[in-house]
């Protein structure tokens, strides 16, 4: 089914079909080590868009999500964006990281387009007037982690971050959160993005100050590598991570070694009980099951929520939706109660949520609240 969906999307990438549809452009990894995340980001949105199309909620017009593979590569993401814009996409939606999003910002400004729900809390995106988000910022997440750690006497952290433009921005957001709380600015240790980012020297650099914990602003693989090497060296240091870490993939990569790791979540838990009792969860879980039989997780849930927000903006923009009218509609969307998660885009607010919840890996290799 996944292979069929990917093929269908690429075959649909044609101007003739686009003229009849409300085309939304997306660039995520569909190949490489992050392919599972990219597919989940695509499929969570497709589940809702397919439901909207089937039930004819847009007066005969259909939403067509065109998803291009960026292989988690910044240059390919930029090329994908140029292609999507040139061939008429009305908006960009759900890119997989700030690194793969920043090159889209000038094109958004030039074409007066909406860029909705990048899967990132990075401040490098949030100041742009065309970017609207549905998740808390990394600064919001950091403040929640700090409060939790300080409550148990853990005040000293080392921050691990990517040594590039976006990574340094994320480090600054985290470090400024410490300063805002009257705490000493944490030392940072930079790692390269991609490949084997962590080695013994990196672990030694982190451990030399005897921090109470490591605060990770990276993806799950860096956290996993750190946990493995630190364990082998006999210097187990607890880890708290921003939501950029995919908890499911962290567990799959290191298992019990991640026990006690804290990961900030910016979406409510998609656990099975919520899928029964919470209307939003139930809708997303059933729509995803109808699409491809998959189970709802944090990534597909976030994408499902983002898709529902976009549908509301399209409806508000009216039957002759354009790039400009969709961007304008998003800016006046107001408060949205999705019956399980609320967002607010009132009074010029472009960032709909600052909700954060901390989870910890417990017994049974499950992240719990």
What does this protein look like?
With 369 residues, the chain is of the alpha/beta class. Helices cover 45% and strands 17% of the residues. It has 15 helices and 14 strands. The strands form three sheets. It has a seven-stranded mixed beta sheet with strand order 7-6-8-9-10-13-14, sandwiched between helices. A five-stranded parallel beta sheet has the order 2-1-3-4-5, with helices on both faces. A two-stranded antiparallel sheet has the order 11-12. Helix 8 links the parallel strand 6 and strand 7 (187-191). Helix 7 (138-150) packs across helix 8 (165-180), helix 10 (220-232) runs parallel beside helix 11 and helix 13 packs across helix 14 (298-317). The protein is globular. 49% of the residues are buried.
Give a quick summary of the entry:
The protein is an alpha/beta fold and 369 residues long.
């Amino acid at each position: 089914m996944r292979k069929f969906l990917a093929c269908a999307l690429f075959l649909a990438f044609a101007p003739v079909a686009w003229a009849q549809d409300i085309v939304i452009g997306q660039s995520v990894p569909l190949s490489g080590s992050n392919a599972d995340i990219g597919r989940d980001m695509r499929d969570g949105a497709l589940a809702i868009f397919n439901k909207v199309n089937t039930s004819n909620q847009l007066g005969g017009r259909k939403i067509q999500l065109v998803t291009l593979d960026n292989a988690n590569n910044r240059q390919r993401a930029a090329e994908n964006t140029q292609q999507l814009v040139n061939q008429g996409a009305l908006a960009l939606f759900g890119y997989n990281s700030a690194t793969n999003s920043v090159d889209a910002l000038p094109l958004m400004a030039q074409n007066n387009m909406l860029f909705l729900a990048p899967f990132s809390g990075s401040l490098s995106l949030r100041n742009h007037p065309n970017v609207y988000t549905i998740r808390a910022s990394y600064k919001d997440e950091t403040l929640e982690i700090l409060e939790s750690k300080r409550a148990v006497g853990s005040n000293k952290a080392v921050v691990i971050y990517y040594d590039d433009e976006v990574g340094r921005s994320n480090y600054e957001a985290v470090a400024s959160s410490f300063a805002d709380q009257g705490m000493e600015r944490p030392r940072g240790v930079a790692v390269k993005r991609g490949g084997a980012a962590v080695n013994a020297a990196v672990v030694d650099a982190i451990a030399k100050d005897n921090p109470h914990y490591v605060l990770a602003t990276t993806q799950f693989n860096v956290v996993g590598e750190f946990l493995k090497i630190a364990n082998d060296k006999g210097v187990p240091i607890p880890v708290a991570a921003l939501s950029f870490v995919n908890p499911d993939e962290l567990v799959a990569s290191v298992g019990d070694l991640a026990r006690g790791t804290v990961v900030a979540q910016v979406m409510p838990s998609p656990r099975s009980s919520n899928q029964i009792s919470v209307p939003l969860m139930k809708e997303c879980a059933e729509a995803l099951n109808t699409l491809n039989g998959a189970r709802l997780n944090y990534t597909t849930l976030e994408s499902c929520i983002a898709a529902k927000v976009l549908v509301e903006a399209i409806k508000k923009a009216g039957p002759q939706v354009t790039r400009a009218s969709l961007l304008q509609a998003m800016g006046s969307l107001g408060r949205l109660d999705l019956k399980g998660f609320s967002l607010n885009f009132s009074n010029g607010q472009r960032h709909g949520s600052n909700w954060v919840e901390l989870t910890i890996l417990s017994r049974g290799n499950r992240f719990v609240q």
